[in-house]
Every structure is written in C-alpha cells, then in structure tokens.
Amino acid sequence: MKLNIAKKIIKEHLVCGEMIPGQEIALRIDQTLTQDSTGTMAYLQFEAMGVPRVRTKKSVAYVDHNTLQTGFENADDHKYISTVAAKYGIYYSKPGNGICHQVHLERFGIPGMTLLGSDSHTPTAGGLGMLAIGAGGLDVAVAMAGGPYYLRMPEIYRIVLKGKLQPWVSAKDIILEILRMLTVKGGVGKIIEYAGEGVETLTIPERATIANMGAELGATTSIFPSDEVTREFLRAQGREEDWREIKADEGAEYDGGLEIDLGLLEPLAAKPHSPDNVAKVKDIGKIKVDQVAIGSCTNSSYADMMKVASILRGKRVHPDVSLVIAPGSRQVLTMLAQNGALADMVAAGARILECACGPCIGMGQAPASNAVSLRTFNRNFEGRSGTASAKVYLVSPETAAVSAIAGVLTDPGEFGEEPGITIPEKFIVNDNMIIAPGPGGNSVEVVRGPNIKPFPVNKELDNNVAGKTLVKVGDNITTDHIMPSNAKLLPYRSNIPYLADYCFMAIDPGFPRKARENGGGFIVGGVNYGQGSSREHAALVPLYLGVKGVIAKSFSRIHMANLINSGILPMVFDNEEDYGKIDEGDELVIENGREQVQRGEKLTVLNKTKGIEFKVKMPLSERQREIILAGGLINYTAKGGGKQC
Ligand code: MIC
Ligand code: SF4
User: Fold this and answer.
1) Contacts of 451 (CB under 8 A, 6+ apart)
2) How far is the CA of 419 from the centre of ligand 1 (A)?
3) Among residues 616, 643, 613, 611, which one has the least CA distance to residue 627?
4) How far apart are the CA of 120 and the centre of ligand 1, in A?
5) What percent of the chain has pLDDT above 90?
6) Has residue 105 got a pLDDT over 70?
7) Any atom of ligand 1 within 6 Å of the Cβ of 299
8) In this structure, which residue's CA is closest to atom 2 in ligand 1?
9) 139: nearest Cα among 629, 623, 639
10) Quick one: average pLDDT of 255-265?
11) What is the position in ligand 1's atom list of the atom closest to the CA of 360?
12) Single pTM value for the model
C-alpha cells in the first residue's frame, strides 16, 4: 500500500485501531515535552500515577512561560519541575534556555518519531518530519507513564507548495495565506502534510513556522518530509545521526488538499482579533504602529533574527514605536551576540527580552490602551496581549522590522533590496542549561511550594444531570476566554481554586459567582468551542466550579479531550438551531443521563424553563464514554480502566 508521510509514522506507532478517518486509534509516544505553565499540573498528575521513572525514549521539561518571577510562585514551580525531572528521568531545560518548541527543534526533535507535548504548538517539530501533537497535561502524563495516546484518526490533507517565494515574502506569509483560505477551524480533524517542489526551498525553521501555526487551523498536527534540508539542519546542530529520510510514497493517497503557488504570495497580516482575519499588508494601509514585538515559537529562529538585525542595521526605531525582541533560544541569542547582530538591534533602539514566550502570553510588554501592536507571534485573540483594547496584527519578521523603523505598517518590499543572510554550517551548541537526569529515584526530594494546591477530581456521572445555563457564548471561543492567562494569572497554574475566580473573566466576570451560587451547571457555546491553547485549566477550573457539561455547535480537538479527561460532558447540538432556543439562566435537565450515556446514543436535554426538549450528540468512542461515566480519566484509570484499546 502506498502511504503518505503521516500514515507511515502512524503505522509504525500504532498500538491499536485502524487508520480509518474518524476511528479511534492509539499511538506509542517516543518523546514528550512539557512547559512550565501546563507542566506543573501534568507532573502532579504523573506523580499520582505512581510510576518510578518515565517510560518514553526522551521526556523534556521546559521552563519558558512563567519566567517573570514577580513573587515566589513561579520560582517555586520551577523548583518543583526541576526536582520532579531529576527524580523521574526527565531532561530539564532551565529558564533562559529558550522557548520549548524552538529548543526542541534544535536539540531533541527526531524525524519519524512521535512527540506529545502539553502545549498546542508542539506540532512545530513537524518541520523536522516528526509526528508532533499537542495535548492536555494529563494525556502527556499518561504518555510519560508509558501509556499510548488516543485520538481519532485524522484525515490527511495535502498542501502542495509550488514555486518559490519572492523576495520579502516569508514562511509566515505562507501559513497566513493558508489560514485565510481554511480559517481557524479548517484544520479540525486533519493532519496537514506538505509536499511539492516548494518544500525544498524552505529551511527547517521556515517549515517549523508553518507547522507551528497549523495549530491555529485547529489541525491535529502538520508535517513536512524529512529530506536533505533536514539532514543539513541536524548536521549543523551536531546531530546528523538523528536524521532519516521520510517521504510520501509515489502515488500515496490523501483525503483532500490544495495547492499554493509560492511565487504569487505577498506580505500578509492577520488583523485583530483572529489569526484567520488575513489581508495583504499593502491593502490594510499605513496604520500607525505603537509597538512591534518579534519572537515567539513561530518566528524566533536564527534566520528570523538575522533578517531583523540586517533590516535594523544602521537604522533607528521610529520614536513612537516600542520594539521588543525575544530570540527563541539561547543558541540563537549566543550566535547573534557573537556575530554582532545583537549590537545592531540594540543600536537601532530595540529592547531585548530573555529567550522565553514573554509578551506572546501576556507575560509583560502589554501594549498601551488602544495601541496597535505588530507581532510575529501566532495568536492575536482579544485581550491576550494583556491589554483588552489593544489591536494586535500578526506579521512576518520582515514586515515587523521594516514597520518598526517606519512607524506605520509597511510592506517590506518598500524597504529596498532584501538583505541576504547566510546560515552558518555549524550552530553553536552549548547544552549546559539542559540538566540531564541522573539515576533519580528516592535520592531526590521533590520540592513543593505553598502555591501548589491539589487538582480537582470529578465523581462518577450521576443519573440525573441537571443545572442552570451559566453562560451562553458565541463561535470560536478560545481557551484564553475560558481561562485567561496573563502576567497576574499565569503564576497560579498549579492553584486551581485561585484561578477559579477568573474563569470567563473577559466575557462574563459574574461566571464564577453564578457557578458557585447554583452549585455548577452548563455552558452553552457555538462553533469551534475551546480553540487555541492546550491548557487543561480551561476544563479543570470549570470542573472545580461544578460545570457538568458543555453544549456547543462543535469543539476544538484538544479542549474536547480535556473536557472528557475531566469528566465534563462535551455535547454537540444535533440541530444547530436549538442553540437559539437556550438562554442564560435556563434550567437544563438530562434525565437518566448516566443511562443515556451508557446507551451511547443521542441524549435528550430538557429545557425546563422553556418547556422544550432537544437532542445532543456525544461523538465519543466507547473508551471515552467509560471515562465520562467514571468521572474522568483519573477515576477511570484508578478503577482499572486504561485498557490498551
Ligand atoms: C499559548 O500559546 O496559548 C500557550 C500558553 O502556550 C498554551 C499553553 C498554556 O496555556 O499554558 C498552548 O498553546 O497550549
Ligand atoms: Fe509560548 Fe507563545 Fe509559543 Fe505559546 S504560542 S508556546 S506562549 S511562544
């Protein structure tokens, strides 16, 4: 049988199930990654499993999100993660070493392997030909304990890249064009596989930029072939032995696809407040810019930074613009420092930030009120920058740097000739901020700070599931809406009771109070509910507040899995029109809910307030149904569940 790349890797890792789109499959996981804002919770859950040492080929714990340390909380969490890592055989990447996805690409990613990460941008490693998937922390904890990762077999969607990019057009513009075409829900249920002669013209960091923002399409993951370009990248990282060729068989089949002529693309920007709200930079016009932020796991590679430095060399950042730059890893920063590019940035007036997520997750650098902020990042959801009224545009590093000088949004083509940059044959490799695990075990004491609180665990599903509609929201609600993250809240990722007061803060600040007063209830949502981050806090916090179910028009993949893992019913309107028949405050009842779930058919929900009934679907596998009945994955596993298919 002729196989595409995704199916080749899935086949090699298939523990059970068949590669039929929509059917549940389970995959053996070779590597895991966590970052600190989801990692603390993932390791608490891993510890609860009582496994003496991780059973993956390699597990890495990064600290890159919560690095502000405005109080003891973050530093305590870092200590907790580093001691857990030492005890259980996990590599620990210290704060300052870089953003997890950039460092993983440089130092650990291996073509053909599977990677499960507690961060939605884990697919970045797809640029290297890895099958890299983002998941909730609990799923990653299970993988560390040696369990397989369950998912529905995605469709494999091929994007053929033809031709070559014009000067000043970059990988970011390719993925923005794809987002324009497919929208933020266009990738749901799909693995995006890249093919065509255009792929050979893209470096690994460029491929990684594209794979990274596949998360914004809602895709399960994105993957590129592993070819001579991949080999060169690994050689430059001193890891040529990790290379293996992976390409699709001639005549391999796909479930769908599209073609893009790279030569026709122009610099693009995603306008506020969605990554798919894309237009040509020149059509948006010369809007005044207040802030430019360059970095994040999307665009912080050596080449990206060198392009920026070359544009800034000998120039001055516009007096009205604050330009902040965060190189993606210490490797990148070291190389910029050694070749003088860092000095060019500083001389032009850039503010240099540490190698971390920083402003991308609202950890500092919140823009001024109503400010326009151009960012090379991947998400521009309303309020995510830390300033509710800010207008964030997502652009390429070239557009960002040129606009920082001009003070207005500018098509980089206006700057003149594109500066050529050369990529060194060898990158500077210094892994002394990565602590390899020793023998671990009882010789290591895990240090827990006072901010680490127990995580909530659900109880078995009741037969009568009833409660009020606590909130009714629209389409494309993100996990940033459900459980916001910013410099004030991120330190509390290991403290669910604290976070609970901020659930749905931007949409309905009264939500936590209503949930408490009513002893929990239901959430009603629109299309693509829970898109964005992998944070399981967007399920754990509602669980803590007593939420029993979410009824939506459709769900994003990771959030739906997190709801199931928490034992919260994820229900899909059988008839979308019924969405219009529920109002906030309506009393909903699922009579004999437990039996209905057991029967596995459509559930009947009674809207007692309006005196009407409607049907909802629960598109769950038998295993997922059992998890819901048990009250979440932890209970299911404790009760002897976790059967291997
Ligand atoms: C994000 O970009 O939203 C994050 C912060 O990296 C999240 C993880 C988190 O919420 O901790 C993600 O993408 O999964
Ligand atoms: Fe960090 Fe931003 Fe990437 Fe999330 S999207 S991992 S916050 S850099």
Assistant:
1) 72, 73, 76, 77, 491, 492, 494, 495
2) 33
3) 643
4) 6
5) 98
6) yes
7) no
8) 533
9) 623
10) 98
11) 2
12) 0.98
Using the predicted structure, report yes or no on whether residue 644 has a pLDDT greater than 60. no
Indicate if the pLDDT at residue 89 is higher than 90.
Answer: yes
Token pair 């979308």 is at which residue? 576
Mean pLDDT value across the chain: 97
Which ligand 1 atom is nearest residue 490's CA? 11
* Residue 642 reports pLDDT greater than 90: no
Cα torsion 552, 553, 556, 557: sign: positive
Q: What is the pLDDT of residues 287-315, one digit of tens each?
A: 999 999 999 999 999 999 999 999 999 99
Average pLDDT of 5-33? 98
- Neighbouring C-beta atoms of residue 222, cutoff 10 Å: 31
- How many CA within 13 A on the CB side of residue 617? 11
490 lines ligand 2 (CB under 6 A): no
Q: How far apart are the first and last CA of the chain?
A: 24
Mutate to test the pocket of ligand 2, among 296, 329, 379, 381 (most ligand atoms within 8 A of CB): 296
- Percentage of the chain surpassing pLDDT 70? 99
Which residue, judged by its Cα, is nearest atom 1 of ligand 1? 533
With a 6 A CB cut-off, is 322 part of the ligand 1 pocket?
A: no
Average pLDDT over residues 479-495: 95
Whether the per-residue pLDDT at 95 is higher than 90: the answer is yes
HSE of 104, CA atoms in CB hemisphere, 13 A = 39
Backbone angles phi, psi at 442, to 5 degrees: -65, -15
Give pairs for 371-374: CB < 8 Å, separation 24+. Answer: 371/290, 371/291, 372/287, 372/288, 372/289, 372/290, 372/291, 372/409, 373/289, 373/290, 373/291, 373/292, 373/293, 374/269, 374/289, 374/291, 374/292, 374/293, 374/399, 374/400, 374/403, 374/404, 374/409
Answer yes or no: is the C-beta of 124 below 6 A from any ligand 1 atom.
Answer: no
Q: Which pLDDT does position 1 carry in this prediction?
A: 87
190 Cα–ligand 2 center, Å: 22
| 468 CB near ligand 2 (under 6 Å) | no
